[in-house]
Amino acid sequence: xxxxxxxxxxxxxxxxxxxxxxxxxxxxxxxxxxxxxxxxxxxxxxxxxxxxxxxxxxxxxxxxxxxxxxxxxxxxxxxxxxxxxxxxxxxxxxxxxxxxxxxxxxxxxxxxxxxxxxxxxxxxxxxxxxxxxxxxxxxxxxxxxxxxxxxxxxxxxxxxxxxxxxxxxxxxxxxxxxxxxxxxxxxxxxxxxxxxxxxxxxxxxxxxxxxxxxxxxxxxxxxxxxxxxxxxxxxxxxxxxxxxxxxxxxxxxxxxxxxxxxxxxxxxxxxxxxxxxxxxxxxxxxxxxxxxxxxxxxxxxxxxxxxxxxxxxxxxxxxxxxxxxxxxxxxxxxxxxxxxxxxxxxxxxxxxxxxxxxxxxxxxxxxxxxxxxxxxxxxxxxxxxxxxxxxxxxxxxxxxxxxxxxxxxxxxxxxxxxxxxxxxxxxxxxxxxxxxxxxxxxxxxxxxxxxxxxxxxxxxxxxxxxxxxxxxxxxxxxxxxxx
Length: 483
Known about the structure:
Largest sheet: 7 strands, parallel
Oligomer: single chain
CATH topology of the largest domain: TIM Barrel
Strand order of the largest sheet: 1-2-3-4-5-6-7
Distance between the termini: 43 Å
Number of helices: 13
């Protein structure tokens, strides 16, 4: 049902990050040096995924995410062991990589729902340059040599499927690229934490034009909803396909699903990071199996705000209710509308583009519930949906779609806390700018929730769009109530 879900959300392809050790042994563990032992587990798992993709008419892209020996200095990506030869230091690791791809191509050469072969994920290595991740390499000769050798081996058995190349420096450094050796190649690039401007994709588009070869954004993500919407608009404008990373992640707002963390898993993380009393094997196994169970699609939290930003909001600037809000009733502050920045909300910090600016920015500094610029934290009030909107600043605002049973004037109550020594101030308006009410939110002290009210907030019968503008910040909002 993972692939069923992806299809329902709007995706038409999935990129499978493969670790070589599911398919073959490390060179150090081969019974006969220079020979390859093939492990059925990895191939069987891939077969199963492909069958789901076929049933849902979704393309599968095979991505060698961790190559034999490791393809770069970033161990988080390639899972390399620095005490052993890496992919580039070892001819045996290179031969195993080539053999693995040929084995995969033999198996899948006639499978129509295999879209292509992504040969080496995010190479990041300094062959001759100073930067350890290969961003300043000028020739990248070993990279192009190996990818050509892999391609040649694939073409011995599979003449049809797309072959996807990646540059150095996490996929983006195409310096020294040799003349293209195949008429069914795609150049992949990866994009994280950069501005969504035409200039940001100029170099890869220039390569596309110069070489007359398709390009593909093979990996992106780890940012805010507004960044996703604007990126997809940029890609659509330039006729570039994409794959987001990842589908599932623990304690995550910036993806299509969130895998729920457990307190026991946090204890393991704390031990791995800081040491201390060693957990028992039984505790560790039980904890990890619980996390594995949380990874099942039926147990994850589907992030509908992220999906809405990736798809609907790309071509639709209207807002939609995040939850059905009826009045009389209570509306939690975190249930503001789904929609674009400037249509559903406005916040002073709304994306992280530190690679472009040199400055890291938190868009949702509480890292809870939703992936917009709105800052959301865990709430300790006695009545709560678990979360509140905090770190409010002058000029920010939130919009709520409400359905009123009648055309009437309501009493509006705000549940808030204000730990500063200055009063915050809210102005309530319609989405067309008509003033409905103005409310001051005096200091409350730390962790003290209070309620203030104002009368004569007039709503029409049926749908109303209410906006809460912060004329002065500092207040945290739990909910407001109309009665």
